[in-house]
Automatic annotation (TrEMBL):
Name under which the protein is recorded: Solute carrier family 15 member 1
Function: Electrogenic proton-coupled amino-acid transporter that transports oligopeptides of 2 to 4 amino acids with a preference for dipeptides. Transports neutral and monovalently charged peptides with a proton to peptide stoichiometry of 1:1 or 2:1. Primarily responsible for the absorption of dietary di- and tripeptides from the small intestinal lumen. Mediates transepithelial transport of muramyl and N-formylated bacterial dipeptides contributing to recognition of pathogenic bacteria by the mucosal immune system.
SUPFAM superfamilies documented for this protein: MFS general substrate transporter (SSF103473)
GO molecular function (one): symporter activity
Gene behind the chain: SLC15A1
Catalytic reaction list: L-methionyl-L-phenylalanyl-L-methionine(out) + H(+)(out) = L-methionyl-L-phenylalanyl-L-methionine(in) + H(+)(in); L-aspartyl-glycine(out) + 2 H(+)(out) = L-aspartyl-glycine(in) + 2 H(+)(in); L-tyrosylglycine(out) + H(+)(out) = L-tyrosylglycine(in) + H(+)(in); an L-amino acid tripeptide(out) + H(+)(out) = an L-amino acid tripeptide(in) + H(+)(in)
Subcellular location: Apical cell membrane; Cell membrane; Membrane
Stored InterPro entries: MFS_trans_sf, POT_fam, PTR2_symporter_CS
CDD domains registered for this protein in UniProt: MFS_SLC15A1
Keyword Glycoprotein: yes
GO BP: oligopeptide transport; protein transport
Length: 623
């Protein structure tokens, strides 16, 4: 049985249907908007690459810092349900602000197609992004934990499946939106003049966020809504502070040692709270090495995409753009999660191996390191095969009766006048006054040519013989398909690390701190992103393949540390521990009533021994 008033369908509370649909729409909204954001900065707000990149990363980092805020509000004040509703409204307003900020006609009073007051668009979009970061980050730890709350104590298996399905929905939403919003952006729209339609590319995610909110509200009557339990974060901080102070005060040898430094808070704080803090601290300690995984993982969107720009994206009928390679990740997630859940994990279990969550996460880290070794191998191949500048054509041929122009064939989404975006035959028209002629040639992906037009050119229908094409940079010969192995390994790593970590964070958290631990988990993503910025700034390794190897080595080192920490971790059942504590506290209350006047110091000592026994009993299983 689930915990809410929800019907049970195939062993699952019906209420979780609304939660997973909500997550699907929300992730569609988030990833759809994010997919076109850098291009919006660059081509609509007219920012340079550096500014666009920094603001983009600051926004992403903010999205993973705000979960802490959302978790505090949910756990200590509003509860998860209300927090999700209120912050979803903030989120939807932010998305609408983004869509409005991208309507060029609003300030285009001279109707020339460009906004007249860029300040208006910049301010509105920054406000929009701030609200989105607050909304998406704020609800993130609440939605997963709220979903987990819907399951009863004996529904561990169903809850695990829920977290897998939840992850599938994240990636289903992300896959669809990263395909759709770039297409919407490429459309032309406008009232007075037609421009690239960023407003539509932001408008559809805004609409999906409204749908997410409506779906969540429809399920309202079915949810189990755990009550918030006071300002838990403040209590936690005060309790830890008191334990440290009390320990310091009693540092002399005449005072007997206590089993755990948190036990020094026993004089003032509830034993249940102390036990809960111990549980959280144990998990948070284990989180310390985790950001390194995200450091590698999030380079899909940066380094790997840049690597793809130097590769051949011609898949026959389909020419793949470098940024489109990122869709391989959600595609593989949608394939791998069911395979892992229904085939690989049961098979490992059948072989008698206990593949615990922490072991899965360790393997996930190793797979991510392997992905970076693959990326390094691909990079070496690219370096060997390409980009020898054959010669500098203008230098060699200048002053010999030619005029020339240079042409670069890129794999990018936007063009200047001398950039061609595919590998098809291109035709140029050469004009002089009313005379013209045509020249056609084939191009390779990523190549660069200089065209020399003979001064003896005679205009006619064809000027093929009067133009000489010189290849300055060879076409990219290493195919983008070679990136698939690295995507495969990083995604397999993600399934083992991230899907497992999400469930682990929920299952090991005390009932009143579930959202806090989800936020702690997401905080590791934010730190991972900061590490990318720091390493990229500091290391400045000239060879890209060497940087990949450095990151792989760092992750392997961190992975060894993590596996040692994980070996000493004992799994707990927070519900059982809490129940035992509550029972014991009730018994003690009864005891106190019947034996008044008992020395308080003795009581504290005895209670402490009992509590330790119960805590120890409940923490048996190792890594
Ligand atoms: C980084 C997030 C914790 C995980 C997740 N992303 C993906 O699943 C991408 N494959 C998300 O919640 O967006």
């Amino acid at each position: 049985m689930g915990k809410g008033k929800s019907k049970v369908v195939c062993g699952y509370p019906l209420s979780i249907f609304f939660i997973v649909v909500n997550e699907f729409c929300e992730r569609f909204s988030y990833y759809g908007m994010r997919a076109v954001l850098v291009l919006y900065f660059k081509y609509f707000l007219r920012w340079d690459d550096d500014l666009a990149t920094s603001i983009y990363h600051t926004f992403v980092a903010l999205c993973y810092l705000t979960p802490i805020l959302g978790a505090i509000v949910a756990d200590s004040w509003l509860g998860k349900f209300k927090t999700i509703i209120y912050l979803s409204i903030v989120y939807a307003v932010g998305q609408v602000a983004m869509a409005v900020s991208a309507i060029h006609d609003i300030t285009d009073s001279d109707r020339d197609g460009t906004p007249d007051s860029m300040t208006f668009h910049i301010v509105l979009s920054m406000v929009g992004l701030f609200l989105i970061a607050l909304g998406t980050g704020g609800i993130k730890p609440c939605v997963a934990a709220f979903g987990g709350d819907q399951f009863g104590e004996h529904q561990d298996r169903q809850r695990r499946t829920f977290f897998s399905v939840f992850y599938l929905c994240i990636n289903g939403g992300s896959l669809l939106s990263t395909i759709i919003t770039p297409v919407l952006r490429a459309q032309e729209c406008g009232i007075y003049s037609k421009q690239k339609c960023y407003s539509l590319a932001f408008g559809v995610p805004a609409a999906l966020m409204v749908v997410a909110l409506v779906v969540f509200i429809i399920g309202s009557g079915m949810y189990y809504k755990a009550e918030p339990q006071g300002n838990i974060m403040l209590d936690v901080c005060k309790c830890i502070g008191f334990a440290i102070k009390n320990r310091y005060r009693h540092r002399s040898k005449q005072y007997p040692k206590r089993q755990h430094w948190m036990d020094w808070a026993e004089e003032k704080y509830d034993k249940l709270l102390i036990a809960q803090i111990k549980m959280v601290l144990k998990v948070l300690f284990l989180y310390i090495p985790l950001p390194m995984f995200w450091t590698l993982f999030d380079q899909k969107g940066s380094r790997w995409t840049l690597q793809a720009t130097t590769m051949d994206g011609n898949f026959g009928a389909l020419v793949i753009q470098p940024d489109q390679m990122q869709t391989v990740n959600p595609i593989l997630i949608l394939t791998l999660v069911p395979i892992m859940d229904s085939l690989i994990y049961p098979l490992i279990k059948k072989c008698g191996l206990n593949f615990t969550p922490l072991k899965r996460m360790t393997v996930g880290m190793l797979l991510a390191a392997i992905a970076f070794v693959c990326a390094a191998l691909v990079q070496i191949q690219i370096d060997v095969s390409t980009k020898q500048l054959l010669h500098s054509s203008p230098y060699i041929l200048s002053g010999q009766g030619f005029i020339y122009f240079k042409l670069t064939i890129k794999g990018k989404a936007n063009s200047d006048s001398t950039t061609v975006h595919n590998t098809d035959k291109a035709t140029f028209t050469l004009r002089s006054g009313s005379q013209s002629c045509e020249y056609s040639t084939n191009f390779g992906f990523g190549s660069s040519y200089t065209f020399f037009i003979h001064s003896t050119l005679v205009f006619g229908s064809n000027c093929q013989d009067s133009v000489t094409a010189v290849e300055d940079i060879k076409p990219n010969s290493v195919h983008m398909a070679l990136q698939i192995p690295q995507y495969f390994f990083i995604t397999a790593g993600e399934v083992m690390f991230s899907v497992t970590g999400l469930e682990f964070s929920y299952s090991q958290a005390p009932s009143n701190m579930k959202a806090v631990l989800q936020a702690g988990w997401l905080f590791t993503v934010a730190i991972g992103n900061f590490i990318v910025l720091i390493v990229a700034e500091l290391a400045k390794i000239p060879k890209q393949w060497a940087e990949y190897v450095l990151f792989a080595s760092l992750l392997v080192a961190v992975c060894v540390i993590f596996s040692i920490m994980a070996y000493f971790y004992t799994y707990i059942d927070p519900t059982e521990i809490e129940a035992q504590f509550k029972k014991k506290i009730n018994e003690d209350d009864e005891d106190d009533k019947s034996k008044p006047g008992k020395a308080e110091v003795e009581m504290v000592k005895r209670d402490s021994i009992k509590c330790h026994d119960e805590y120890d009993k409940a923490t048996q299983t190792k890594m």
